[in-house]
Structure formats: structure tokens, C-alpha cells
Amino acid sequence: MFFDQIKDIDGSIKQLKTDLVGIGKSAEAHYDHLDDIAAHIIAIEAIVVALIRSNGIDAAHVREWVKESTAESSGNPEGSEKARIIMDELLDQISH
Question: Is residue 43 domain-shared with residue 86, that is, in the same domain?
């Protein structure tokens, strides 16, 4: 009986190891995907900033669009706070 319990525990530990290795591989794959998304966003931001610097932009119109477009989904009548922060950072880059 005691040895049967030891075998069960050993089997559980081996399964746990297998599961943890799988979780680690999955987490690494998710990180790689997030890294790819971040790289794309940075590249797009660079292009947008360059285009706006050469063509100009109505910042007030952009702010109003973000507010209107994100107010309902964010539950904030002023729009998404995160979107506004990112927008302001991009607009600051354009003015430099």
C-alpha cells in the first residue's frame, strides 16, 4: 500500500514536470507573439509620425475622434485613458 502511494506520487510529479514544461513553452510562444506585435506597432508609429510631420495634422480633430471612438467601449465619456495617453505621446513626437 505504501509503495503504491509512492508510485502514485512519483507519477504525479512526472506529470507535473511535463505540464510545467508545456506551460513554459506556451508562455515563450505568447511572448514571441507579443514581441512581434510590439515591433509592428513601433514601425507603424514611426511611419505615422514621419507622414504627419511632412503633411501636418489637426490635433484637436484627432483628440475628438479618439474621445468619440472609445467613449462607449471604455465606459468613460472622455474616451479611453490609454488611447489618450498614447495619442498624446505620438502628438508630442510629431511636434519635436
Answer: no
Smallest CA-to-CA distance from 83 within 63, 54, 61, 58 is with 63
Place of cell 515563450: 28
- Rounded CA-CA distance 2/75 in Å is 59
Which amino acid belongs to residue 90?
L
Nearest C-alpha neighbor of 52 from the set 96, 19, 22, 12: 96
Whether residues 72 and 88 share a domain: the answer is yes
Which domain covers residue 47, as residue numbers?
1-56
Could you tell me the pTM of the whole model? 0.61
Answer yes or no: do 48 and 14 share one domain.
yes
The DSSP output letter for 57 is: -
pLDDT tens string 34-83: 999 999 999 999 999 899 889 999 999 999 999 999 999 999 999 999 99
